[in-house]
Design goal:
By secondary structure, the chain is α/β, with parallel strands linked by helices. It has 2 domains: about 200 residues, Metal-dependent hydrolases (TIM Barrel, Alpha-Beta Barrel); about 60 residues, Orthogonal Bundle (DNA polymerase, domain 1). It has 10 helices and 8 strands. An 8-stranded mixed sheet has the order 7-6-5-4-3-2-1-8. Helix 5 crosses helix 6. About 45% of the residues are buried.
């Protein structure tokens, strides 16, 4: 049986492996397909596709968008985005500009507090990367301000703290429109990470379904079997296809392996076959 991983990050956003390295690792693990779903960018896609040329693996063009629902940040994956769509490119460029402004403000706040961090250090030699809080956490760790990544987030990178203002977020309506306009399939990522409870999680799913949601990330590194079972039922109830992925980030999430999550994740390629069939039926 073949397996896939439909939620993977590279150093085009907050992963630590280059797109080529992600592909090589996925091939080494015997995966039939991966979806590269970096935050707010598809900049790693061309490298990943070039690295996969001639290899027995499919690279699915994807993205992960952040938006705000009832005051809480949620993430929506887009799989099979069109990387040539001009409007889509323009929208993602605007999202990267939002992140850039937030990052510059964070640098200013750190430096004003006597914490020596520069933008060059955060970019780590990759000026095209979409910088996230994980980049700041790595620098804080490397420079000895914290003992581990978890402490960096709790001490310096909490949104309620003095150093990390929330970046401007788009609405779910906007995120869904970005994806549906380029004929991608929108998927609600890791629904239980928002800690909404079953009732409000279902309300969120129903709300997004009305906006054009196609899928639900049923299988994820943060889920146990019971949670995945509940999400399977929710996906059936709202006629959504189930997806699954590790949320691989390399050493930024060292306990999560590509294709296997924390050891027990297995997403069959049959699931991807169903997604492709459903997309064909939708004329996508």
């Amino acid at each position: 049986m073949k397996f896939v991983d439909l939620h993977v990050h590279s150093n085009a956003s907050d992963g630590t492996f280059t797109p080529s390295e992600v592909v090589a690792l996925a091939v080494e693990k015997g995966l039939a397909a991966i979806a590269l779903t970096d935050h707010d960018t598809i900049d790693g896609l061309s490298e990943a596709q070039a690295a996969a040329a001639g290899l027995p693996i499919e690279i699915i063009p994807g993205i992960e968008l952040s938006c705000v629902y009832q005051g809480e940040e949620i993430h929506i994956l887009g799989i099979y985005v069109d990387p040539t769509d001009r409007n889509f490119i323009s929208e993602t460029d605007a999202l990267k500009e939002i992140r850039k402004k937030r990052n510059e403000e964070m640098i200013r706040r750190f430096q004003n507090a006597g914490i020596s961090i520069t933008l060059d250090e955060v970019m780590a030699g990759n000026p095209d990367t979409v910088i996230t809080r994980a980049h700041f956490a790595r620098v804080l760790l490397e420079k000895g301000y914290v003992k581990n990544m978890d402490q960096a987030f709790k001490k310096y990178l909490d949104y309620s703290g003095p150093y990390c203002p929330r970046k401007e977020k788009i609405t779910p309506e906007h995120a869904m429109k970005i994806l549906t306009d380029c004929k991608a399939s929108p998927v609600l990522a890791h629904p239980y990470q928002y800690h909404l409870g079953d009732k409000k999680t279902e309300e969120l799913v129903r709300y997004l379904k009305d906006l054009g949601l196609h899928g639900l990330e049923v299988y994820h590194s943060s889920n146990n079997q019971y949670e995945s079972g509940k999400l399977r039922k929710l996906a059936r109830q709202y006629d959504l296809f189930p997806t699954g992925g590790s949320d691989f980030h390399g050493s930024n999430k060292p306990d999560i392996g590509i294709g296997i999550g924390r050891g027990g994740l297995r997403v069959t390629a049959l699931l991807l076959d169903d997604i492709k069939r459903i997309r064909r039926e939708k004329g996508l």
